[in-house]
Amino acid sequence: MEVIYGLIPGMIILGLVAVAVLFWAVRSGQFDDLEGDAQRILMDEDEVEPRRIPDAGTDVEEEQRDGGEGRQ
User: Fold this and answer.
1) pTM score
2) What is the pLDDT of residue 60?
C-alpha cells in the first residue's frame, strides 16, 4: 500500500510529460500534412525520364566521341 504513494505522483508526472510532448508536436507542425506522406508512398517514381534529368546522357555521348576511351 505504501508503494502507491510513489506510483501516483510518478504517473501524474509521466502523464504531464506525455501531454507536453503532444503539444510540442502539434506546435512544431508534426501533424500538418497527414495525407501527403500516405499518398507519396504509393506513387511510383522509380522510372525517371532521362530528358528530365540534366546531363543524363552526357557520359554516353562523350564516350562515343572519344572512341570509348572515357575521361582521363
Assistant:
1) 0.48
2) 56
